[in-house]
Amino acid sequence: MSDVTPDPEDLKIITLARSSRARVAASEGAAVRDETGRTYTAAAVALPSLRLSALRLAVAMAVSSGAQKLEAAALVSEAEMDPGDRSSLSNGLRQ
Asked: How far is CA 88 from CA 5, 48, 81, in A?
């Protein structure tokens, strides 16, 4: 756990991620903020034929909406972060 206190904008995406997860009783919820301040939310998809993490889906939604860079991301889950999500997140924030 970090000793860093999130700023109000970070608290907003954490709340949005929690809401996305709760809305559909998903295993995880995520929210990302792009360079313009727009936010994108998603819940994990767990179908027999398709599995997508909430973070990957939120990033895909941002990119498909024209986001060029991501400023922040929040992932809410009871599980540990998937290594692929960690890689996607760090690569997206570096670009």
From this structure: 24, 24, 11
pLDDT for 2-49, tens place per residue? 577 888 999 999 999 999 999 999 999 999 999 999 999 999 999 999
More confident residue, 95 or 41: 41
Kindly list the domain boundaries of the chain, sorted by start residue.
Answer: 8-94
Rg, C-alpha atoms of the chain: 13
- For residues 18 and 29, the answer to whether their CB atoms sit within 8 Å is yes
CATH of 8-94, picked from 3.40.140.10, 1.10.340.30, 1.20.58.100, 1.10.287.500, is 3.40.140.10
Helical H runs in 24-82?
Answer: 54-64
pTM: 0.78
Q: Shortest CA distance to 82 belongs to which of 40, 51, 60?
A: 51
